[in-house]
Amino acid sequence: MPFTLSHAAAVLPAVRADGTGRGSLVPGVLVAGSFAPDMTYYAASVLSGAMRFGDVTHSLPGVFTVDVLIAWALVGLWLLVREPLVALLPRSRQGRTAALTRCGAPRARVRPSTAVWWYVSAVLGALSHVVWDAFTHLDRWGMRLFPVLGEDVAGSPLYWYLQYGGSAVAAVVLAVFVTYALRRTPAGEPAGVPVLSARDRCWAGAVIGGCALVAAVRRATRWWDYWGAREAKPWELVPTLCFGAGAGLVLGVLLYAVGVRLWRPALPVRPADSAHPADPAHPAQPAARGAFAGPPEAEAEAEAEADRVSVRRSRPGVR
User: Fold this and answer.
1) Which residues pair with 15 in a beta bridge?
2) Domain count, the chain
3) CA 221 – CA 236 distance, rounded (Å)
């Protein structure tokens, strides 16, 4: 698929609308596993030869080994950027998102059973990715099983329509699921979420958007220098743009998240602020219910205070 994020739609049957997993499956690891096989394609923006390693991550042995490690690494990165990302939303809209994504949830001790279900969830997520790609990419086993997928329709192979059309449909499914889940989640105080000023958000947008734009242009230019003279079709540039922008987006979000955690740390979460039980995987427990989000005036006052603090910090000699 040209849109890696769309792969998360394949694991939605294992995720409830309240953000919990069915059985002992861990939603965060399922989603990370569904992204894992494509991560080498994003890494190719800075690592030569990473594209070829995609053959390993999209193989059955890779599903049970390297994809699991990649998925776990992605979960670790998610836990780093989760609260800073929610902080980019308007304060009045952070409560439901913070509850659904378990912001501020305490970490629990990792038990052997926890590790087993993390492994199973990562494998199932990666397997869903590899099976889906088998029917939407050239020279995969799904194409060999159904040769008709390689036949041209209106100038493009049938698998191309499945690849791009499937990405678009899956993105819509994800949007509907997230919207439904957020509406079902009770509003509450955004526990563990930093308070950002308007100025902070502008800087965040510049850093994240700038990194994504620069990386996309660089990757696309490199691709065009190699393929452009060979009459490549314009739509073939889409995956390259997505991989380049995605790599830059990851870098930008990481820089932003580290900056927020260093210079705009959230207030400590009081026991009354969050009813999340301890969980090392964060999304496998019910969200806090019945918490009071506070009136809009209080939220506006908090953001105004953040602006004042930001201005004071920017003045020389002011601490």
Assistant:
1) 21
2) 1
3) 13
Which segment of 78-82, 179-183, 257-261, 266-270 scores lowest on mean pLDDT?
Answer: 266-270
Rounded mean pLDDT of the chain? 84
Residue 230 lies in a domain: yes
Q: What is the C-alpha to C-alpha distance for residues 206 and 189, in angstroms, rounded to an integer?
A: 28
- The per-residue pLDDT for 80 is 95
Residue 319 lies in a domain: no
For residue 155, being part of any structural domain is answered with yes
Residue 26: burial class (beta carbons within 10 Å; 0-12, 13-18, 19+): buried
* pTM assigned to the model: 0.79
At residue 192's C-alpha, the angle toward residues 281 and 107, to 5°, is 30
3-state secondary structure of 265: coil
Domain that holds residue 205: 4-266+276-314
Sort 290 into a burial class: Cβ within 10 Å, 0-12 / 13-18 / 19+: exposed
Residue 227 located in a structural domain: yes
Diameter over CA atoms, the chain: 70
**173: helix, coil or strand?**
helix
pLDDT, mean of residues 157-176: 92
Q: pLDDT tens digits, residue range 199-246?
A: 999 999 999 999 999 999 999 888 888 776 666 667 778 888 889 999
97-124 confidence digits (pLDDT tens): 999 999 988 877 888 999 999 999 999 9
302 vs 113: CA distance, rounded Å = 42
Report CA torsion sign: 35, 36, 38, 41. Answer: positive
| Contacts by 21-27, CB closer than 8 A, 24 or more apart | 21/121, 21/283, 21/284, 24/113, 24/117, 24/284, 25/117, 25/120, 25/121, 25/124, 25/284, 26/117, 26/118, 26/121, 26/281, 26/283, 26/284, 27/121, 27/283, 27/284
Rg (CA), the chain: 21
Which residues, in sequence order, are bridge partners of residue 21? 15
Report pLDDT for 294.
Answer: 40
